[in-house]
Amino acid sequence: MTKEQEFLAYLKEIALLNEAVGLSEWDSQTGMPELGANYRAEMSSYLSGMAFDKSTNETMAGFMTYFENHPEELSDFGKQVYEKAKEEYDLNNKIPVDRFQEYMKLTSNAHSIWVKAREAKDYQLFKETLESIIKMNKEFIPLWKKNEATNYDVLLNQYEPGMTTEILDKVFDQVKEGIMSIRKEIAEKGQEPRTDFIHAAIPTSVQKKFVTTVIKKLGYDFSKGRLDDTVHPFMLNLNRHDARITTRWVENDFTVATFGTIHEAGHGMYEQNVDVKYDYTPLAGGTSMGIHESQSLFNEIIVGGSQAFWNKQFPLLKSLTGDTFEGIDNQTFYNGLKETKSSLIRIEADSLTYPLHIIIRYEIEKMIFNQEIELEDLPTIWNDKYEEYLGIRPENDLEGILQDVHWAGGSFGYFPSYALGYMYAAQLHHAMNQEINVEEILGSDDYSPIREWLTKNIHQYGSSRKPNQLIMDATGEALNPVYLLDYMKKLYFNVYGINE
Amino acid sequence: MTKEQEFLAYLKEIALLNEAVGLSEWDSQTGMPELGANYRAEMSSYLSGMAFDKSTNETMAGFMTYFENHPEELSDFGKQVYEKAKEEYDLNNKIPVDRFQEYMKLTSNAHSIWVKAREAKDYQLFKETLESIIKMNKEFIPLWKKNEATNYDVLLNQYEPGMTTEILDKVFDQVKEGIMSIRKEIAEKGQEPRTDFIHAAIPTSVQKKFVTTVIKKLGYDFSKGRLDDTVHPFMLNLNRHDARITTRWVENDFTVATFGTIHEAGHGMYEQNVDVKYDYTPLAGGTSMGIHESQSLFNEIIVGGSQAFWNKQFPLLKSLTGDTFEGIDNQTFYNGLKETKSSLIRIEADSLTYPLHIIIRYEIEKMIFNQEIELEDLPTIWNDKYEEYLGIRPENDLEGILQDVHWAGGSFGYFPSYALGYMYAAQLHHAMNQEINVEEILGSDDYSPIREWLTKNIHQYGSSRKPNQLIMDATGEALNPVYLLDYMKKLYFNVYGINE
Description:
Two copies of one chain form a homodimer.
Chain A (H helix, E strand, L loop, with lengths): L2 H28 L6 H20 L1 H12 L6 H17 L4 H24 L3 H21 L6 H9 L5 H25 L14 H15 L8 E3 L5 E5 L2 E6 L6 H19 L16 H15 L3 H14 L9 H8 L16 H17 L7 H13 L25 H20 L2 H5 L5 H10 L9 H9 L6 H14 L5
Parallel strand pairs in A: 1-3
Antiparallel strand pairs in A: 2-3
Helix pairs in contact in A: 1-2, 2-5, 5-6, 8-20, 9-10, 9-12, 10-11, 11-16, 12-13, 14-15, 14-16, 16-20
């Protein structure tokens, strides 16, 4: 074996351990017996600890030093892998193994505590756990820090390499202002769409049949995935042949599972189409949370926001639901789907107000890590911001600060990815339209050119390219929020009957 | 850390790895995406290889030698754990690694060859593979052998410690004769029960509701388990708080899932009630295949064979199934459930004829390992025995010698466990009846005293006691087939209206 082969074999062991951790995580969220949680935490923390140990131990250090001194022994491919592994090594190596294991155990238990706090709608039940998670993150930040400007930049970078609070502050101001202005126009001149049919009762089994058909058509491959039920939808990939998605079914609102599933399928399609050559290396899997969200949101917002797409899919839904939609024509249906109004729950927000939900979280996370705030005050801060940006106020913590799973998992700096995903998706859509006629394809029976364009420009590369490079290569320019604002304006002015 | 604590921590690592392998196995049988199989094989073999390595490597050898020379450093508990670990170490370590790997490869390939032979209904396609597996077992037996009387005793002992051909020859002769005589009486004087309603169509969702209610009442704890769908039902325990069961649903025969689920729940209840102190040691989990089967069969044959039980549960089934069972009274229903007749397929056999299927396999396995027979002759030997004991003859190898998966996996000496389970279950039932009135409890609304008796006498001990000791302590005597024969006679004479 050459030294490079040895290195790749070693990385494969880490990948296999992470796959086992992933399966454990999927299982713990989809159907693990309730009382199994403590045992599961032991197993997960043992396996992830082992993966972490292998990622940071003397052997790994040996590979790092060796290839630093003998770069000529690496093939081009090996060099790419080495560079990514080195990045992760530098990230991981800063934290002592026992602290990391402690952290894994903490976040593993935090999930069920969060679930209980949600049931009681009481942030107080979760506060102490959240405090511990934040405290450990604050302990780790100085260890991770390279040349980032602020503490929160350190966390941001873990999800979106190259992203800074400086960029985000500017971009988010532009987005906030743009959305506010669209919302103002709508409030003044818009005609409210009819939406009663959105709340028609449709049995879960029928909804499942519908969305399964739709996401298959979009390119989600069920021979490499599956669809399960969870409170909080997610996609989890064990490998490129096993990228699982979940959704939540609401009988009186088919749009929850419909858009939720279309969204998660976008994540799954990304993973299912990464080049096989990256298997068992740190280059397998999506390159950043923002790019990942660009794929899920391309599905949800661009495809799911297309009138041509719904002109094709609404008749299918109609055919599965008896007389549920009797008398509703295509335009009425589409307008109803794309209603926009203030709401309290992020994952139920429409595509226009959604970025505001993210901006609120971004501002709060920045406060937690760049200022010293009392965690006691978080629900009030949260509720005040909702009142300011969206004009509504949560009545309890379930509608407010307890709604998202992210913090229970220790994911701070993650939320901005969703808004980045919106902007990337719109920017990719603009670039895609230079090559293929997206609306025409969405009005046809074969959506494959869209999936193929995304595979060619995004999916296939896995993590071998950085977000900014991918976006630059695919669209010819850096992140630009204008495409999102243009897209939203056109879409919502159409729905609300506003002529410019 | 004391040396004992070190040893226990090391064993815990092995247990956690096995737990991950177990989860992977469960997932691959319940819903893994089809194309994920090859990736999954990599992960499973990596993890199980690591567990095996830890069980046999220098570190483990070090613990074995150390405690052999310093038994005084072990607590009573540590001594129990050490002895069990030593047994397993000796078993694993007797075979040279390369031969063991060869054997794993052979049995792994054998499975698909067996599947192909089944499809062709042709034993000849499997014969050569079977020959190699038997040959390797014959190579290993002298390495495993301690003081067992015959080669086949060595294999028997791996599944049921302390069991011998000497005991089984005697016991099985008695069982064979007893069952033959009951069958003769039934054939001469019995009144055939009505069975048409067994094949009424009942939707899976309704069956699921029914059996879920029933096994909960029996004591299967869903907060420590779950029920999934598979072609081949099984119970798989990750730990005592996560003992999962599966079943197969047949819409036109509710008895398949009903008795199947009740059976697997018995396995699950065993694992769910092992004493917490054995966690993460080789003493966690059931002590032998025979004792495990005694728990599943207690549920299936004793509880599921009780008229009082069905007098209570049939009304529930009726209430869930509209007019499906209109005009069927309790006695008719019960009699239909307990019909007995000759059949060719073991897993479809009724409780009276089942032990004959096992005795046939036992006799053949003994011939293979204790005599020199031509494997060429196996199908004829098999078919002749079915004709002799059950009065029917397989028309092809799929109905005959190819029906069971065990030999393809190299499991020789396993089959007798099923019959032991029958005998143990009846013997435990007899002993239980000295303390509590089982039929009265099964006619009541609270079955918990039964589960509690089994936990007190069997479950709690995990693998800390050998099968013969458990049976002796729980029933006051060694294995005695008379209880099974008495039970069967009484039950079937009742069903077939025979007065003695």
